[in-house]
Amino acid sequence: MYNQQSRKREAMRYQIIAAEANEPLARRIEEKFPDRFTFHATEWNKFPDGTDNIEIGGFSPQNLISGEHVLFLASFHDNDVTLSQFQVIICLLQSFIESLTVVLPFSPVGTMERVTKEGQVATAATYAHMFSSLPSCGRPTRLMVYDLHTLQNRFYLHGNSVASLHTAIPLLKQKLEVANIDCVAFPDDGAAKRFSAMFQDMDMEIIVCGKTRGEGDQRTVVIQDGDAKGRNIVIVDDLVQTGGTLFESGKVLKEAGATSVNAFVSHAVFPDNSWKRFNKGGDRECFDKFWVTNSIPTVTDKLPVPDGIFEVLDLMDLIINDLDHFSST
Half-sphere exposure of 211 toward its Cβ, with a 13 Å CA cutoff? Predict the structure, then answer.
């Protein structure tokens, strides 16, 4: 029965609509799986007053969208494009489609799920309200997200949207098998609890780092568990912003005798081009290799892959597998 259902899902056809930043991904999916996916380019224009003037692909000269399963490749890399995409999502759901799956590789509000003082806005809850209030096409909208920073955010969704959580760790594990890595380190206990079980099938030393309080409010990163001496290490976390903790963890591991130290994050946020600090010649140059995924193409498309330490791992095949089987394997 399972194999029968699996084959049925793998044969399902989709019409793809994509945010402008993910149109290259949409074209590559169509090129690789032409029997299953058809991409329709959308015109993401503006009126002179700055409001949206959008024409969704696939509706003209004939309607190829209504009655179909639709895959929407989203990219919420700034507030302007996010609102534009919500408008398209609503229009699609009101167009008598069979189902809608939204692939949002990186949820940018995952770290803002709570507030510490009145008046602050928990944007994760706001986005969840927006998704939960979407129109219904007869079944819930499936929202696929990779390595969501705070897993409890999935329970913020209700009503017409259901979170489908996935991980990019399988992409890293493929690299570890050929990169002579024998140790996985985590910058804090939270990352260790989140990801360590995913490496149980590999013969890896596990190291957990963490911050300790020194004089005053000064905090320093130390190794809390594990031995780095002589190890080829990869530090694993879900995302990097400016990367201060990641850098401090790398330094501590090298000082503890690691042979090599590398890094992996699913989401390369890198505000203000902070990736330059980790590249060759930067003041945070400490990693032999820095793996990231293309979950934020507006950032990773700028990384100097041929001449630097960065390697961008493509999510495409993983997305298709997870679309069909509901889990990253």
Answer: 12
Beta-carbon contacts of 212 under 8 Å, excluding residues fewer than 6 positions away, are: 219, 220, 222
Geometric angle at alpha carbon 96, from 95 and 99, rounded to 5°? 105
Report the residue count for the chain: 329
CA distance linking residue 63 with residue 196, whole number of Å: 47
The alpha carbon of 39 is separated from its chain's Cα centroid by a whole number of angstroms, namely 21
Would the pTM count as exceeding 0.70?
Answer: yes
Count of Cβ atoms closer than 10 Å to residue 255 Cβ: 10
How many C-beta atoms lie closer than 10 Å to residue 172's C-beta? 25
Per-residue pLDDT reduced to its tens digit, 62-84: 999 999 999 999 999 998 999 99
CA geometry: angle at 91 spanning 85 and 94, to 5°?
145
Q: Measured between alpha carbons, how far apart are the two ends of the chain, in Å?
A: 20
Q: Give residue-wise pLDDT tens across range 266-316.
A: 999 999 999 999 998 889 999 999 999 999 999 999 998 777 899 999 999
